[in-house]
C-alpha cells in the first residue's frame, strides 16, 4: 500500500537559528550560506539581490530563500547529472531576509550555463516563510540571455514571464541581477507545481 | 542517464492548502494565482547532497550542542524514525535539520518576545543524517507550548520543526512534528490546515522501544517523501 506524503507545514518565524544561524549571529555553524562563488569556482561572478513582497506590497522580513543551480558549464553537482561538474561548485545556497534594513536578500554566485533541453540558463528558487504552508518553487532567468526559445517560459502567460527574469545592471558592485518575488497581486511571481 | 522516471506529484490531498484563512498570515502570503505546471527536467531531478561530513559530533544532541554550564532544563527525550518514499523504500544518507523552542516555550530568537525564560544551555537547533536504512535519531528537550498572535489566547501545541532534503529539490520538505495526546492540537489552525485524513501523520508516537530506561522517553516520527514513478534497479541485481 502506498504511504501518504508527510504533510508540509510552515517554516514559521523562528527558523533563523535552525537554518541560517551564522547569518543571524548565532554561535552555531550553518550548513550553507549565501555565497556560492567562494574559492576557485569557475565562472562569471554575479550578485542576485531582491525583496519578497506580500499581498499588501509590504516587504517580507522572515522569508528564507534557497537557490539550486548548475555550474558555468550547465552541469549539476548531483549523481543524476553524469557529465560531472566544475570542481568546488556546490550549486546550493540559502539566505534569510531578516538581516538587512529593507529586507533584501542577496546571493553571490556564478552565472549558470545552459543545462540542455533548449532551456535558457536559469536558477531554481525555493521559498519558505511564515504564513506559507507549502514551500513554492520559482525560477530566475537572466535579462541578457536569449530566453525566447525556453520551453518553460513558453508555458507561462506572456504577460507574466517578466516576473521570472532578473534584470542585469553593471555597476561598481560588479554584475548585479535584481529579482523581486511578489506573493500576490498584479505583479505576482509565477510559481510552479512541479 | 539512469531513467527512474519522474518524481510523483506533490499530493495536494495530503498537504494543507496554501490559503488557510484560520491561519491568518496565509491571507497575504499564499500565492493568489494557480501554480503553473512544470514538467520535470534535470534542474528538478537534482538537488544538493549533504551527507555525514556536514554533521558535527554533537549536532544530533540538542541537550549538549549548546550547553555552556550544564544540562538544559526540561524533559529529555529521544526522537527517532525512518524516512521513506511513498512505496516504503527507505531514503538513506539524507540530511534532516531541526529547530524548536526550549522547555519553557521560548525560542532563542530576537522576534520571540514571549515572557518565558531562555535557557543558557539550550539553543534548540540540530542536524542528523539518515543511516543506510533511512533511520535518524536525535536527543533533545521536550519543547513547551507558547502563545502566538493569530487570535485571542492562541497557543501553539508542542512541536519540533523539521527540514529535509531527500535526493532532489522535489523531495524538499519542511514540516512540524507534534506530540501524542496534546489537547492544543484540535485548536491549532496550522495543524488543522492539513486535510483531516493526513493530520495524524504529523503526530509522533510514544515508543517504549526507543525509550531508554531511567534516562529518556522516546518518540517515533516517520516521514514520507515523494518517490519516483519507476522502480529503481537494485545495484548488482
Largest interface: A-B, 74 and 85 residues
User: Number of DSSP strands of chain B?
Assistant: 12
CATH class of chain A: Mainly Beta
**CATH 4th-level superfamily of chain A:** Aromatic compound dioxygenase
Describe the structure.
The complex is a heterodimer of chains A (194) and B (237). Helices cover 2% and strands 29% of the residues of chain A. Chain A is mainly β and 194 residues long. Chain A has one domain (16-182): Aromatic compound dioxygenase (Protocatechuate 3,4-Dioxygenase, subunit A, Sandwich), CATH 2.60.130. In chain B, strands 2, 5, 10, 11 and 12 form a five-stranded mixed sheet that branches. A four-stranded antiparallel sheet of chain B has the order 4-3-8-9, with no helix packed on it. Chain B has a two-stranded antiparallel sheet with strand order 6-7. In chain B, a hairpin with a 7-residue loop joins strand 6 (146-147) and strand 7 (155-156). Chain B is globular. The model of chain B has no long low-confidence stretch (mean pLDDT 95). At the A-B interface, helix 1, strand 6 and strand 11 of A face helix 1, strand 1, helix 2, strand 3 and strand 9 of B.
Record the SSE blueprint.
The complex is a heterodimer of chains A (194) and B (237).
Chain A: H1 16-19, E1 45-50, E2 52-53, E3 63-69, E4 92-96, E5 105-110, E6 122-129, E7 136-142, E8 165-171, E9 174-178, E10 181-182, E11 192-193
Chain B: H1 26-29, E1 36-37, H2 42-45, E2 76-85, E3 95-99, E4 125-129, E5 135-141, E6 146-147, E7 155-156, E8 159-164, E9 173-178, H3 196-199, E10 205-212, E11 216-220, E12 223-225
Parallel strand pairs in B: 2-11, 2-12
Antiparallel strand pairs in B: 2-5, 3-4, 3-8, 6-7, 8-9, 10-11
